[in-house]
Amino acid sequence: MAGRALLHAGPPGTGKTALALGISLELGTKVPFCPMVGSEVYSSEVKKTEVLMENFKGWQSLSTVHMLDMECFSYLNRALESSLSPNVIFATNRGICTVR
């Protein structure tokens, strides 16, 4: 994930999502920015990796990243190794957590 991912960690209400939104506004309308919450991955009837793939373009903001399991992290790791991968901003309110 070298140079393509950023992790915002902090308690609820500290502005992690607002910071990601601010970055998207600075990038302008020509750069695709796709905000997403970790629970969206599991609320669909589609495979988890397909949900991530559909939304993985330009800049991706993924809040509550601690909800993702090992399959999702493996997919994200492989995707971020590609030269065509987007830049991703991860956000979590859990300092240290166990990946399921």
This entry's quaternary arrangement is single chain
| Strand residue percentage | 15-25%
Sketch the major β-sheet. Answer: 4 strands, parallel
The helix content, as a percent range, equals: 25-40%
Provide the low-confidence segments as ranges. Answer: none
Count of DSSP-assigned helices? 4
Overall pLDDT, averaged?
Answer: 76
Q: What's the total number of strands?
A: 4
Whole-number radius of gyration? 13 Å
What is the H/E order?
Answer: EHEHHEHE
Class per helix and strand makeup: alpha/beta
Head-to-tail CA distance between termini: 20 Å
Question: What global shape is seen?
Answer: globular
Q: How would you write the strand order of the largest sheet?
A: 1-4-3-2
Q: Any overview of this molecule?
A:
- The chain is built from four helices and four strands.
- The protein has 100 residues and is an alpha/beta fold.
- It starts with a strand and ends in an 8-residue tail after the last strand.
- The model has no long low-confidence stretch (mean pLDDT 76).
In short:
The chain has 100 residues and is an alpha/beta fold.
Features:
4 helices; globular; 100 residues; 36% helix
Question: Layout of SSEs?
Answer:
Layout: E1 5-9, H1 16-27, E2 33-37, H2 38-42, H3 48-55, E3 59-63, H4 70-80, E4 87-92
